Structures are given as C-alpha cells and as structure tokens.
Amino acid sequence: MAHSRWRIFWLSLFTLAMSGLIWVALVYIYPLDTGSLDLHLGTVAPVDLVAPKFVEFESELLTAEAREAAARGASLAYTPTDPGIARQQVDALRAAVTFISTTRADSFASYEQKLEDLAVLDAAFDRPLAEEILLLTDEQWQAVMTEAVLVLQQVMRSTIRDGQVEEARRSIPSLVSFALPEEQVPTVTGLVSLYVVPNSFYSEELTEERRQQARDAVFPVVRTFVEGETVVRSGKVLSEADIEALQELGLLVGGDDPLSYLNAGGVVILSMTFILLFLYRRPAFSGNFKQILYTSFFFLVFLYLGRVIILQAHALPYIFPLTGFGLLIGALFGPQPGMFFMLPLSFLMGYGMPAALEVTIYFFLSGVFGVLVLDRARRVVSYVWAGAWAGVIGAGALLTFRLLDPFTDWNTLAIYVVASLVNGVASGIIALLLLFTSAPLLGKVTIIQLTELSRPDHPLLKFILLTAPGTYQHSLQVANLAEQAAEQIGADALLTRIGALYHDAGKALAPQYFIENQIPGAGNPHENIDPYESSAIIIRHVTDGLDLAHKHHLPDRIIDFIAEHHGTTATRFQYAKAIQAAGGDASKVSLDDFRYPGPRPRSRETALVMIADGCEARARAERPHTEVEIRAIIKDVIEKRLASGQFDETSLTMRDLHIVQDSFTNTLRGIYHPRIEYPKLEERALSTDESETFPDAARPVPPSPEPDAPLPPTQPKRSPKTPPRNVPLSEPTPHVKNP
C-alpha cells in the first residue's frame, strides 16, 4: 500500500512538472495567438500572408508617421525683431565714440597711453583699429563717428538671428555713405561691427505651434486589403506596419491574449492525458521511474529546441532532427514507446506554428516510420538507414502538401526534399550517439553491444570454450531454449540469448567440479568432499562468474544473468548428504548454508534462463525418450521455481509459463527425439552384435540430479581436500553483485 501511494505521489509530481514545462514551451517560445500566426517585429514571414477578407481601416501607425514627417518639415519660429536691442546697441556705440573723442582730445596722454585707454573700451577693439582712429584728423573722426552711428541704426533695423551676425557684419561696407572717403570705410566698418548683435531669437513655443499646425493639416492614412491580396511576402522582415495590418486582418493576435494561455492549457491537458493513459496501459514501462524521467527529459529537450528554430527559415523546421527522439526511445525501450511518444511531440511541435498541420504530419509520419524500420537493429548502419527512410517518408509528406501550393516552385520543392533527407540521416546519427551515452546510465545494454558480445572471439567466451567446453555447449543449449521462448512471449530474445551464453562463466575457473565438463569414467571429485565444502564450490561459480564479468567489463544487464540464474535456490544434493551425515536429523542442518546468494530473477529474461538452465541439465541427465517425459521434466522445473517464489519479482504470467513450457518441449524434442522402434530379429539373422549396432539400447538411464550437482560416485574415493582452481588459492571469493 505504501509503495502504491509513493508511486501515485511521484506520478502526480511528474504530471504537474511536465504539464508546466510543456505549457511554458507553448506560450513563451513564440507566444500563442489562439491558432493563428505568432510573429513579432523583426521576425521573418515564413510563408506568404494573404488577406482572408476585405478590410479597410485607418492606420494609426502610418498616420502618425505622416504627421510626424509634416511636423519635421515645419520651419523654426523666431521672435519678431526687437527695436529695444537696436536702441541699446546704438546708445552703446554713442558712448564709445564719446569716450574715443575724449581720449583723442587728451593732450596730457602720450600716444601709447591713448592706445592703452582705447583697448579698455572693448576686448575686440584691436590695436590696428585704435591706431587708425587716433591718426584721423578731427574732421575725419567727426565724419567717421557720425557715419558709424547711422550705419549701425540701419543694420540693427533688419532681423538678425543667431548664426546671421557675420552675414550682417559683411553687409556693413555696402551701407556706408559714398560721401565718406574710401580709406575711412574700414574704420567705420570695424567700429560698427563691434556692436552688431542678434535681435531675433528662436522660440520653442512658437515652433511647436507651427509643427502642430502641420500635423493637423495631414489627413488620416487609410489602408485597404481585398480578400486574397498578399499582405506580406514570404521572407520579408516584418515592420510595425505589417504587424498592424496582420492584427487588423485577424492573422495575428497578441501573445498576452488570455485566450492563448487557456488554449495552451487545454492542449497540455490533452497531451498529458494521452501520455498518462499510455503509462497506465504499460506498467512494464511506467514501473521504472528512471525510464520515465529519461524519456521526459529528452521529450522536453527536443520540444524546446524544435520550437525555438521552427520559425527561423523556410526549410529549417524540416531539417530539425525530431525523428531522432523516436529512434532513441524505440532503441532503448522498444518500438511501441518510440512510436507512441512521437504523436504528442509532433502535435506540440506544430501547435500554434505556421502550417501546423503540415509540420505535425511530417514529423509524426517520419518518426513512426523510422522506428518501424529500425525495430531491433543490430548494426550501426541500421540507424542511418532507418533515418534515411524516415527522411524519404517525410519528403513524401511534404510533397503531398506543397504540390498543391501554386506559389511553390520546383526549386523550393527540391529544397524541402533535401531538408527532409538531411533530417532523417541526422536523426539516425543523433539517436545512435545518444544511445551509446545514455544506455549505461539506464542500466541498458544496446543491441550493438549484444551483437559484439555474441561473437565467438569475445575473450570471455573463448576462455569458457577453451577451459570448460562442456559448460560452453551447455550454455549454447540454454541459449537456444531461452531465446526461442523469449520470442514467443515478447521478451528481449537477443538479450536472453547473450545472457545465457555468459550465465555459467564462473564454471571456467573450476571446470572439473561440474558434471558437463567431467570425462566419463574419470571419477567425481565431489565424492570425498564435505557436503558444505562441495556446496560452496558449486555456489562459487556464481561469484566467480561475477568476478570474470567485471574483469571483462560486461554490461550490467548481462551480469544480472550470472547473479540471478539460480536465484535463491539451494544445492539440494549436498543438503541431502549433509542431513545423511547428521544421522538423518534435518534440524541439525540449515538449508541457508546450501542456498545460492541470489538475487531472485528480476526480469522475464533472467527468469527464462533460470528455467532453461534447469531443464537442460535435467534433460541431459535423464535423457527423456518421449514428449511426455520431456514435458514432465519442464513442468517439474517450473513448478519448483514457482513454489520457491523465484518468479515473484518478474512480470511473468501463468500464460507466459504455459507458452514457455510448449516452447521448451518443442526445442528439446528436436534434441532428445523418440527413437524408432525397430522389430526384433532372430539372433542368427544378425550379422553383428546387437550391443554394437544399438549401443544406446543397453545404456542405463542415469538418476535425475539437480542442476550443477555432481555425478553419483562411480570411482574409488579420491579427492583433494581443497579444490584446484585456475586462480590462486589465496584469492578472495568475489563479491556478488546485488545480493
């Protein structure tokens, strides 16, 4: 009950987290627009945007731009000419000439002193001008003084603004009376120039009034679009005017529209309901929370990356390797999860995007087809081929849509086809790379790894073959039995076969202690060994196998077969001998001393190897002659394993076990097939000895020992007290993984 509550809690937490992250992807990566296009200022139109209806509207944006242009064209406004400034400057000139006259008339001052006094008059009153004035006669000075006042009055009557002072000073010589001698004109000009200043100034208030008048004179700009008219061409960078037009036409609704958030929420609820239904219907998948987290992580990674780039260019969305997600999940967890998760991912990828239906169908068809082609690929190139075929299907889907579009030319179609093919190949490569990096984290073994492990030249297999050939042949028989049964119940047949090949690897370190490696008539080394020590030798092949597996870097899933193929069963032959040695008192002997360290099988595949291991050993020892005998052996092995709870941690059903029984019977029947009953002939009719012609007829049927039990005593007792091994005796017993 507590476990169920925790599972519900974690699934609820997972649902909330996934829903929130998917909702963010839909809303904030290109905010939604209730099903229309979702574009922004500066983005590129991915398709031609056509007016769906007749619209005439006053463009506030274009009207404002026109009015601002008119305001910028309005001239600047200045204040009227101020006569007070003119009077002020004329009075200043008069005061200056009076001071000059007084200085000229000062008989006590020297020439240099007079120059110094005139320099005090104005900073711009330079020495050359002062010298010219002092050199004039009284009559000449009187004429210059009078003319200077008259000319300044004329200059200051005109409008002089900032920036026009120099122009006014340049006009002074033309205003001097022709009656004045020409040599005195520069003196008048220099004197008057000192007092020319602006008399009209810029007015911000008057200028703004003039600009407003210009704005008011502009009529509103009206835009008209008829139905079917192209509003924005494909590939154009959207301006503010384009966004306004799309808004008016209903082709664009702001991302802040509350309906867009509600709509996204509805889509998330539908998608999560779909995903949770799959998890509910597939307990084998949902029972492993690590698988759920892994799938969810890459689901979100592909979704976010896809929505980020899907609007960037015409063909770019179709290059994005979304199919790689389906290939990855299919390779790790089987075709069904791979195909299933492609549906909500494709739907969410295209939702709210341009050509949403086209994008969704393109990704879904290519992804599902790629997973179907890949299935359980056993070669690296299979991933590339699966991706390539996915690209071909995607190209076909695109052509189905684009051939009906009159605005799509042949060059564009070629671009889409190439983009789809690149997508497919890239998806296969990405899936393969992610598979190699992810499988160890999930405790998975890839099909490519399994294929490499199945090669006879693998170092550990070669070691088993050379050291323990009987064990090698036994493992081959177990592999054949378990593989065929795995195929019929839908388990991983290749994993089962490879696990069976390595399940008894530990026997290679002490092969002479196991029945399949003993030479007939050579004696049984277990005869004089204490039952406890004999049991420890047999059980140690599990820990020895784990040691060899780690030494040869076998994947964890293969190591599970070594640790689990005996589960927590016991070596009952030695247990019975121990009871016999105790005088028949079972209370003096603990069964736990003769029990394998386990753990019990935790998958259907390891359970199948457990059953096959027991059935093969029993059949080899008893050599059944009829199908009834074969079936009885298999049934007995399965029932004993069921009774001891060895399958409690697997998902094997009674229906699976019935299928396994039939499969094992068919396989073993081909090995131990019933012999032909030949008619008995008179001894005189035989040309040879009957025992030579039919040697098996006189062969006694041996007893039925437990798997891995030693042969019954056949030779005089001779056995070492300590078992020889192919490793130093001082080497500690390897630690069992997952005891």
Would you spell out the secondary-structure blueprint of this structure?
Elements: H1 2-28, E1 49-50, E2 55-58, H2 60-73, H3 83-105, H4 111-121, H5 127-135, H6 138-157, H7 165-170, H8 172-175, H9 185-193, H10 204-216, E3 222-225, E4 230-232, H11 240-248, H12 258-281, H13 283-286, H14 289-309, H15 316-319, H16 323-333, H17 335-350, H18 356-374, H19 380-402, H20 410-438, H21 447-453, H22 459-467, H23 469-489, H24 493-502, H25 531-551, H26 556-564, H27 572-581, H28 604-622, H29 627-643, H30 654-671, H31 690-693
Antiparallel strand pairs: 1-4, 2-3
CATH fold-level label of the largest domain: Hypothetical protein af1432
Strand order of the largest sheet: 1-4
Sheet having the most strands:
2 strands, antiparallel
Label the CATH architecture of the largest domain: Orthogonal Bundle
Shape: elongated
Q: Termini separation (Å)?
A: 25 Å
Q: Give the CATH class of the largest domain.
A: Mainly Alpha
The total count of strands amounts to: 4
Helix content class? 55-70%
Number of helices: 31
Mean of pLDDT: 81
The domain tally reads: 4
